[in-house]
Design goal:
Layout lengths: L6 H10 L7 E7 L5 E7 L3 E8 L3 E5 L10 H10 L3 E7 L5 E7 L3 E7 L5 E6 L4 E4 L3 E2 L4 E2 L19 H10 L5 H7 L5 H11 L14 H15 L5 E3 L4 E2 L10 E3 L2 H5 L10 H39 L1 H14 L5 H8 L5 E5 L4 E4 L2
Antiparallel strand pairs: 1-2, 2-3, 3-4, 5-6, 6-7, 7-8, 8-9, 10-11, 12-13, 12-14, 15-16
Helix pairs in contact: 3-6, 4-5, 5-6
Length: 360
């Protein structure tokens, strides 16, 4: 089962949570297993509970389980952030990092890291670390109290990716196929990289360096379509995924009004046995194969009808083909197009792709 959010999914969650801006933190609870609950008062919406699980996800929830003894980190957050106003609330670029910009007498930032092991860090206006959930040492930075907080190195921002940038990424890529390049080097993640390829109607298995000149443009167009979809997302619950918009070629098990509501169904602390995981994988594979068989049967039926119609109209089609061949002798396609317009059955002549469209 899904355990965390991709960059794209976090963007969808954040789009739904913008009503919290100008709200106020009224209480803070620190649950077991690193789960933090912020009790908020949102303008026009009243009391809200925001559940934060570092390294996993954040979303609205309908209940809280207040521990008898709040943790030391919880007490520290209450000291600095109780009754603080939310001046701003955003995702850092396309990273899996959320930033609360908060104000009391002083200004603070509450930074939530949703990648790797995850973390929650409270910093002052100068990004000096006041307190944090867990001290962490990375190759390029140290996250600990009294140090300056440094954001991780910025990767490619898929939300602002241009056609030229994508073209450069694909030309330099050494990944095994287009989908893998989009997933890792453009930051879309595996599921949405494949979905972009489907929307763009491009082969996900082709080598990144071998895509034609038109491919970057159609991929960027597909990414923009998805960005538009997640401006007002909903929850689509599948066997192993929860997405903010409907996936092509898949049927959801359940749909929720908001994406936050769907994410709130997750429990990242459930331990699944290897046998159950294997069974789930096999069930998912069977479902995919059944969907693929259904699509193939539909294609066979459609192509059979096309073949029967072509066979039925074989004589007039052959006559038109002979006319085109005759006209092509010593003439440019533009001249051929003018002559073909006189034929009633020809509905369109596509000079760009050198195609003749016939109405049967």
């Amino acid at each position: 089962m899904k355990k965390g959010l991709t960059s794209l999914e976090l963007t969808a969650v954040m789009n739904e949570l913008q009503f919290l801006v100008k709200g106020k933190i009224s209480q803070i609870y620190h649950q077991e297993k690193k789960e933090l609950i912020l009790q908020l008062h949102a303008p026009g919406e009243g009391k809200q509970y925001l559940k934060i699980i570092p390294g996993k996800f954040l979303c609205l929830t309908s209940k809280k389980d207040a521990p008898l003894r709040p943790s030391g980190f919880c007490m520290q957050l209450r000291k600095y952030l109780s009754n603080a106003f939310i001046k701003n609330f955003y995702q850092k670029d396309a990273e899996r990092i959320v930033v609360f910009e908060l104000e009391k007498k002083e200004k603070y930032y509450l930074i939530i890291e949703l990648y790797s092991k995850g973390n929650i860090i409270l910093v002052d206006e100068e990004y000096n670390i006041i307190g944090l959930l867990e001290r962490q040492i990375w190759k390029e930075r140290i996250v600990q109290a009294k140090e300056k907080y440094v954001f991780p190195a910025v990767r490619v921002n898929w939300k602002e990716l241009s056609e030229k940038e994508l073209e450069s990424i694909l030309q330099k890529s050494e990944k095994k196929n287009l989908a893998t390049s989009l997933a890792t080097e453009a930051g879309l993640g595996g599921l949405y990289a494949e979905e972009v390829c489907k929307l763009a109607e491009v082969d996900k298995n082709c080598l990144p360096q071998e895509v034609d000149a038109k491919t970057p443009a159609v991929i960027i167009k597909s990414i923009k379509k998805i960005k538009k979809l997640i401006e007002e997302p909903a929850g689509f619950i599948y066997e192993e995924e929860i997405t903010p918009f409907a996936l092509l070629e898949k049927k959801e098990k359940k749909k929720t009004k908001t994406y936050n509501e769907a994410i709130n169904t997750l429990n990242p602390f459930i331990v699944v046995s290897p046998y159950e995981r294997r069974i789930g994988t096999l069930i998912g594979r069977v479902n995919q194969q059944e969907e693929a068989i259904k699509k193939q049967e539909e294609r066979i039926e459609l192509n059979t009808k096309k073949g029967e119609l072509i066979y039925e109209k074989y004589t007039p089609l052959q006559k038109l083909l002979d006319i085109v061949k005759e006209l092509r002798k010593g003439k440019e396609w533009s001249e051929v197009a003018e002559e073909l317009k006189k034929e009633k059955k020809i509905s369109k002549v596509d000079l760009k792709n050198k195609k003749v469209i016939i109405s049967l």
